[in-house]
Design brief:
alpha/beta, seven-stranded mixed β-sheet, four-stranded antiparallel β-sheet, Aspartate Aminotransferase, domain 1, homodimer
Chain lengths: ~400, ~400
């Protein structure tokens, strides 16, 4: 643990370990987080070793297995679950696919989701509806700001087998009350499958306390790992209900006798780029030991609200994120401007945010406030936005 | 194209571009090929750029899409098919899973396979049998040395929907007569799904001429790409018969209306480690332009047979690879020695081969002769084997 009494010294030091935060005001961990020097150096050293000594030395597969065990243990510690409950994936979307295809569906089975989901969840749900005749019920939860539990509860029927939704909404920044959702779901015998792309690493998550069933995590967003990494938590008592679909690790007799690997490893397709897995491990250790989970979650929470207040004070700008249920995502729109134009103009001014445009979901500009951001960057964002808005839409579109 | 009139100069130059070939006599591309300097340098440069400029600059997703288009075009040129017929995967096994789960199976449907397949095919077949009630018929083709077509033909029934097998057998080195297998299969209305882990890059492959339906390729073996890369060819007229299962790219309305991406891209889970994809591209260009496909295939063929003859001349050693149907894989056993002991002893002597032990398939030692190997390495392998055998099994096991 790097113990730096002066918070300014600490943030300066940590920012120096994330070079991309020097290149731009980095407000987009919601897409990809900034990579750390330690992850990069670890990855490149491993790549160099592969080049020179080859990838076929005795013991190499055993060392990959041990490395993956270490990563699962780090995930278990971070998210409060068992190492054997994590399958390593390449993305949130893969984790959601694993869980959704692992259930044996019957025509007419129902899934409840919300009106605010990401295509990473919507697309596999649409495929299940198309291919297996499922019915998908969409609970309208507004921007995640109203009676979420009520809307979900009203969508449940005796055929509901799964409630599938995000923990933290990508297009509004709202944190959904997952503990209550799990309670309602389990009362009705339904599983809860969570798109955790935005929540994992952004807010504290205790999987065992939440009693959630499936939690699909991205490696490259708030965990700042290499892209193509991720994990899915599948609760230990669900390894018979959620079967492997795409499969690699198993003892198999071709006639149909199959003994999958123990634990969630059975769901892994395996074969990722090996140095990138070491990079992910290095990042998780760095976040835990040098940054500190409590510290970074607290800072995201604090800076997110500072950003909300800063933007809300700008004339003509509407912040759409519910302030009482937020962390680091701040979504907004500006009358007369498209979010695309705002995003593009800010990028020219050295500030990176993104827009979200996936109708019928809300089209908004989105600031993802990371723990590496500074108060100065947030006031700079506010000042630039005020200036852009004051100059009018023509000034932006004519560039 | 590097044109070097002197073949010795050419091979010396090319070997210098594959540093792992200096560290050991590299006879194991059947597991992982040696990485090239150009692939490594490309990958590391891309990793460095990600670290410093971030992974969220405008246009980055478009550039990934264009990069993937370039890779599909290279694959199409190499394997004689259309770019739109390739989905980028992370492994052969993933490609096989995509095809096998893409079919809508009915209980009692049958798949014909062989007694010599790799777990990457056996395991998904066992899962289909277990989960969907398929019947898997195993054609006994010996070591791939007898009447392969007859054995496969005898296993076909009116319920046969798929013939799933390797083009080049991992545990015997035999090349199966794929064109005739396709003919028999199509005559009976069955698809041919091929495990091409060993064939792609080792032997010339013309997918359109073969009229094969699915061809699952590994990036990290004979194509010498980064691990976690691969591709699957799915014939253009099969995009309705083989449906997406795990899905990422589609336009979707959650009620079950789904418009997958055009072409085989619809089968991609996406999200690989971006620099590793650039590394794969660099490798494919290098193999095409600097090494030359015709030259390297010819050399593997020639050196493979030299290796066969060298090993067959050693007393007590039995080469099990059929010499009239081989390319670069040479499998053998030695009375009194386990293949494990032989492999381990050779490694100590600076020679890397591997053993294959996946009962009930054959347990053998396996030499994968690459185009980067030399006549001297092959005679060195022979001399060392003769010495090990002459010293007797006790000399090996006591070390």
């Amino acid at each position: 643990m790097t113990t730096l009494a002066n918070p300014q010294t600490k943030i300066d030091h940590l920012r120096s370990q994330l070079p991309a935060t020097q290149a731009t005001a980095y407000f987009n961990a919601g897409t990809n987080g900034p990579l750390s020097i330690v992850a990069h150096d670890t990855l490149v050293a491993a790549a160099h070793k592969e080049l020179h000594t080859g990838r076929i030395v005795p013991g190499i597969y055993e060392s990959h297995a041990v490395r993956n065990d270490r990563i699962r243990a780090l995930l278990a510690e971070t998210f409060h679950a068992l190492p054997a409950e994590f399958a390593l994936t390449r993305s949130t979307t893969e984790g959601l696919n694993i869980a959704l295809h692992g259930l044996d569906w019957e025509r007419g089975d129902e899934v409840v989701t919300t009106n605010l989901e990401h295509p990473g969840l919507i697309t596999p749900l649409a495929l299940l509806a198309h291919r297996y005749g499922l019915e998908i019920r969409v609970a309208d939860i507004g921007r995640g700001d109203g009676d979420v539990i009520g809307a979900i509860h009203d969508s449940i029927t005796p055929r509901t087998r799964v409630i599938a939704l995000s923990h933290l909404i990508w297009s509004s920044g709202a944190i959904l009350p997952l503990d209550s959702i799990v309670e309602v779901a389990h009362d009705h015998g339904a599983l809860v499958i969570v798109d955790a792309a935005q929540s994992a690493g952004q807010i504290p998550v205790n999987l065992h306390a939440l009693e959630v069933d499936v939690y699909a995590i991205a490696g490259q967003k708030w965990l700042c790992g290499p892209e193509g990494t991720g994990a899915v938590f599948i609760r230990q008592n669900l390894t018979s209900a959620i079967r492997p679909t795409f499969i690699r690790y198993a003892q198999a007799d071709i006639s149909g006798y199959l003994l999958p690997a123990s634990g969630a490893r059975r769901y892994e397709m395996g074969e990722s780029y090996s140095p990138s897995m070491l990079g992910l491990e290095a990042t998780l250790i760095w976040l835990k030991d040098d940054v500190g989970w409590d510290w970074l979650h607290g800072r995201i929470n604090e800076l997110g609200r500072l950003c909300w207040d800063t933007l809300a004070a700008i004339p003509s700008l509407t912040v759409t994120t519910p302030r009482d249920r937020m962390a680091g995502l701040v979504c907004f729109s500006v009358g007369g401007f498209t979010p695309q134009a705002i995003t593009s103009e800010l990028f020219k001014r050295g500030i990176t945010i993104r827009y979200v445009a996936y109708p019928p979901g809300p089209t908004v500009a989105r600031v993802a406030v990371g723990w590496w951001n500074t108060e100065e960057e947030i006031s700079g964002l506010g000042a630039n936005l005020a200036e852009i808005i004051a100059a009018g839409p023509e000034a932006v579109s004519s560039k």
